[in-house]
Amino acid sequence: MCTIFNDPPTLIQDLNITVKDVSLVFPPEKSHRKSMFLSNIDRVLNFPVETVHFFPSHSDLPPHAVADMLKRTLSELLVPYDFLAGRLRSNPETGRLEIDCNSAGIGFAVASSDYALDDIGDLVYPNPAFGQLVCKSVDCLEQENQPLCIVQVTSFKCGGFAMGLITSHVTFDGLSFKIFLDNLAALAAGKPLAVTPCNDRQLLAARSPPCVSFPHLELAKFHDSNPPVIDPSSEALDFKVFRLTSDDITNLKEKAKPSGGAHGDARITGFNVVTALIWHCKALSWDKPDPGRVSTLLYAVNIRPRLIPPLPRSYTGNAVLTAYARAKCKDIEEAPFAKLVELVTEGANRMTDEYARSAIDWGEIYQGFPDGEFLVSSWWKLGFDEVDYPWGRPRYSCPVVFQRKDIILLFPDIDDNNGVNVLVSLPSKEMSKFENLFRKYLP
Question: Could you tell me the pLDDT band of residue 415, with boundaries at 50, 70 and 90?
Answer without folding.
Answer: confident
